[in-house]
Amino acid sequence: MRGRLLRWTVFFLFIAAAVFLLRRYTAPETIQVAVKPVSRGTVERTVANTRAGTVKACRRAKLSPSIGGQIARLPVRKGDHVKEGQLLIELWNKDLAAQEILAERELTAIRFRHRSVCIKAAASRRNAERISKLRQSDAASQEHKENAEAEASALEAECEAVRAEIEARKAHLEAARANLERTRLLAPFDGVIGDISGELYEYVTPSPLGVATLPAVDIIDNRCFYVSAPIDEVDALDIQVGMPARITMDAFGKRRFQGVVRRIADYVLDIEKQARTVDVEATFLHPEDIRDLLAGYSADIEVILDVRRDVVRAPTESILYDGDVFVFLPAEGRVVKRHIQPGLSNWDHTEVMDGLSSGDLVVVNVDNPDLKDGASAVRLQEEP
User: Does residue 11 fall inside a structural domain?
Assistant: First the structure.
């Protein structure tokens, strides 16, 4: 009796173990999925630059005197704020200054001479008119009349000649002033001094043809900045002047600046070993945003081509190339494949025009090789 009971006990234990092993090795494999919810919100279609762009000043001038010489005055330093017309550099110019003074004095002298000659010419003309009247009454000879007329005409001609000489002296003075002006470098606009190449009493020389030399002064207009960035030639076709843009800079972390496209280059850059790009420029929309900017900052622009507001949107990473998505059904513990009709799309979200509803959970780790339609016993991993 005890032996029979033992045999039945062993038999039932064997059956239980067999059932356990059968269920274990024949049950559906548990797969792990990461999901994100479908929501309502804004979807934008954008294009961005392929390489880092640059913050540039609207006006920047790298200046050098038009002639060579020794620096006699250097009243500015790096970082100084200057006004339009302010002296930046003056070369030694005492010889040219003396020529200007000489031209001024010669002009003054010729003006006095002009006045003298013209007064004499006027007096001679009045005398000739009196003699002409006397000749009518035979009180003066014909010869006397002719001599008086000739003298008056000669003095009037001399008056005109001296007047012409005055104009020539004025031109000579302007030439002397122009030569003197070439030794002075003036600020062409209000700005800040970015760099100075040269010191007091050093010699500066203009750049020979075909040979680039460092500018003497680099002046930057710090009241206006824009961003220039290269965008792939294919994406550039959709961009138009006036489109809104977002500007980001490494120096300002995640802060975004609002901008607007102001210019699209008229040609494609073909640089060796780089993709062909088109330079696109964007200005800052709010003047206060440029308060802390510096020319030369690296920057990126994202041009907004189109916007859809308050639409059903799904994470772009959840959508397969053929427009299918895997939807997780928590009540059933499985995933199902659905085909959707996508609309506007960017790297983050894609507009769903049909196939999903707000609140649906879509699988985002679509690279899982075990993921398939109807997969069950799914353990949910929430995606942040």
Answer: no
117: Cβ contacts below 8 Å, ≥ 6 apart: 155, 158, 159, 162
pLDDT digits (tens, 9 = 90+) for 227-266: 999 999 888 889 999 999 999 999 999 899 999 999 999 8
- Give the range of the structural domain holding residue 342, as residue numbers without chain letter: 30-44+309-382
197 and 85 part of one domain:
yes
Count of other CB atoms within 10 angstroms of residue 93: 21
Distance CA 260, CA 226 (A): 10
Within a domain: 17:
no
The three-state secondary structure class of 115 is helix
Number of domains the chain is built from: 4
Closest C-alpha among 264, 265, 384, 382 to residue 328:
382
- Please state, in angstroms and rounded to a whole number, the distance separating the CA atoms of residues 27 and 314: 32
pLDDT number for residue 10: 55
Task: Report if pTM > 0.85.
Answer: no
Neighbours of 148 (CB within 10 A): 22
**DSSP assignment string, 141-182:** -HHHHHHHHHHHHHHHHHHHHHHHHHHHHHHHHHHHHHHHHT
The residues facing 37 across adjacent strands are: 361
Tell me the per-residue pLDDT of 335-381, one tens digit each, with 9 for 90 and over. Answer: 899 999 999 988 889 999 999 999 999 998 888 888 888 887 576 65
Length of the chain in terms of residues written: 384
